[in-house]
């Protein structure tokens, strides 16, 4: 699986990284914690440029945040909560997730967008309350790009620096990645069932 994921990124190049990071913000088929380090591996092998990897990852993350920002701005908190309660189970989010992200945003202001991009649990959802609060787009774009750039740089750098241990990492990551993938699927199914159960109780 290690080779299959690196092969996917290698074939897609910078556009592939951008697309995967965009999707990671909408529906995470592969988390950024896997995408960017493996892209860093490929950069260390000379297949990609590390700067290009970071730029592609940052841009993909930024573009993936835009639909959530505009959804929050156009729909408002109440309708976003209703939509999350009704359809969010397929994206493994709930109305409570929207509310918690809003509370976090109101407590920290614009800084929440920057620091939120560095926190896996709220990286995606922090864009929703920013839109709901009608945060100026320029400010939203600046903080989102800045936070995303740091996040993608650190992940890509980790993969780049571990290149010397590529074979050893691959040896352990390949069977381990199957376990991780299994856990991701199980967590997704659990949240799917949990959110569906919560909906039935309302």
Could you give a short account of the major beta sheet? Answer: none
Radius of gyration: 18 Å
Q: What structural class is derived from the secondary structure elements?
A: mainly alpha
Give the DSSP E fraction (strand runs of 2 or more residues). Answer: under 5%
Number of helices: 8
Task: Give keywords.
202 residues; mainly alpha; 8 helices; 81% helix
Question: Can you offer a commentary on this structure?
Answer:
- There is one protein chain.
- The chain is mainly alpha-helical and 202 residues long.
- It has one domain (2-201).
- The chain is 81% helix and 0% strand.
- The protein has helices at 2-26, 32-44, 50-87, 95-108, 111-116, 127-132, 137-161, 166-201.
- Residues 172-177 have low confidence and may be disordered.
Layout of helices and strands:
Elements: H1 2-26, H2 32-44, H3 50-87, H4 95-108, H5 111-116, H6 127-132, H7 137-161, H8 166-201
Helix pairs in contact: 1-2, 1-3, 2-3, 2-7, 3-4, 3-7
Brief characterization of the structure:
The chain has 202 residues and is mainly alpha-helical. 81% of the residues lie in helices and 0% in strands.
